[in-house]
């Protein structure tokens, strides 16, 4: 079987999920070509698991000071270039197309009449009963048409009684050591505004990852680190908590490691706003709307979360994909959720 796997490159969460999948696909000896779009080619890092991958410009949202700028998103978009990329992408040699909210491979597959299976967090918002904020007409159209598929398998923190999978979390760094540091990753915020917030709590040490950090350095109570997957996971495992925007994968990794969460969703981005509300309602995160010093001070006094044992091995999903029978995704999803223990303190909320 030859597989094409298209991955949205905006943010690191889609790539993290694809990395876990890539290792499981490789163990099965499958031939997989990886395609990424949504960020400049030179900004990808730690991509060894994807072999000779391809990149395209694609389409991504532009943010300023923690809020989506629709005007700059439109100004930066190059729809004619994306249209040509779709028309010129030859998918005839592939038996199956996997997609994680990547538009070029999804549309190329649809144009050629190939089966496209969407494995993404975005797919959960096409399901009933899943909490969502700001899911108006425009966002519904984006969900349906940005990266169309024949089968959509959503990935979420809870299944809500539907064909939704748990996140696969590969804890690559095993560490018995711990620190009192707090890990900070807020790529959609202005770095100077984030530092100003952190320096309001000089008695607390923070480890800050941000796209604008060019070299490691220590200033007052903030250790600046450049992007590095292994180093990031180590700092996550050793930290006492995580401050972040409300992306799906980092929140999932923090929940799996039992870390408390302080989240500021990207304003105007319904997925992040919905993520934050879901975790708040489940008692798993504190949510803030701005970089508020008093909210940070209160959050630092909170205890850790109970760890959630999300699975690390997507082999059951891979076997389902290569079986060719994709008619019963609910059976697969029930299998994946069977061994997961929900937090005791929020179990009544999860069962609703």
Automatic annotation (TrEMBL):
- Alphabetic keyword roster: Transferase
Query: Its domain of life?
Result: Bacteria
Annotated coiled-coil segments of the chain = none
Q: Molecular function terms in GO for this entry?
A: transferase activity
Short name of one Pfam family: Glyco_trans_1_3
Q: Which SUPFAM superfamilies match?
A: UDP-Glycosyltransferase/glycogen phosphorylase
Name it: Glycosyltransferase
Which InterPro entries would you find in this protein's record?
MJ1255-like
């Amino acid at each position: 079987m030859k597989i094409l796997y298209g991955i949205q490159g905006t943010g690191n969460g889609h790539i993290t999920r694809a990395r876990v999948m890539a290792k499981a696909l490789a163990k099965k000896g499958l031939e997989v070509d990886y395609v990424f779009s949504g960020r400049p080619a030179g900004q990808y890092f730690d991509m060894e698991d994807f072999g000779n991958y391809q990149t395209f410009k694609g389409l991504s949202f532009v943010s300023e000071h923690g809020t989506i700028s629709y005007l700059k998103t439109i100004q930066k978009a190059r729809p004619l270039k994306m249209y040509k990329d779709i028309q010129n992408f030859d998918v005839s040699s592939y038996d199956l197309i996997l997609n994680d909210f990547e538009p070029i491979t999804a549309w190329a597959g649809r144009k050629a009449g190939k089966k496209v299976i969407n494995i993404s967090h975005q797919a959960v918002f096409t399901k009933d009963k899943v909490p969502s904020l700001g899911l108006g007409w425009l966002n519904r159209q984006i969900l349906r048409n940005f990266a169309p598929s024949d089968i959509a398998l959503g990935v979420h923190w809870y299944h809500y009684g539907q064909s939704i999978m748990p996140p696969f979390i590969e804890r690559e760094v095993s560490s018995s050591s711990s620190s009192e540091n707090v890990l900070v990753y807020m790529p959609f915020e202005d770095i100077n505004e984030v530092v100003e917030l952190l320096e309001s709590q000089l008695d607390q040490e923070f480890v800050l990852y941000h796209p604008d950090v060019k070299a490691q350095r220590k200033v007052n109570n903030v250790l600046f680190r450049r992007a590095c997957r292994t180093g990031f996971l180590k700092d996550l495992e050793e930290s006492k908590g995580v401050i972040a925007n409300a992306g799906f994968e980092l929140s999932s990794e923090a929940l799996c490691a039992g870390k408390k969460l302080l989240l500021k969703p990207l304003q105007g981005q319904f997925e992040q706003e919905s993520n934050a509300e879901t975790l708040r309602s489940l008692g798993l995160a504190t949510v803030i709307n701005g970089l508020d010093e008093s909210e940070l001070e209160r959050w630092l006094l909170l205890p850790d979360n109970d760890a959630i044992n999300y699975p690390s091995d997507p082999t059951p999903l891979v076997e389902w994909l290569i079986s060719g029978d994709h008619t019963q995704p609910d059976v697969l999803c029930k299998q994946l959720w069977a061994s997961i223990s929900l937090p005791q303190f929020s179990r009544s909320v999860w069962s609703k």
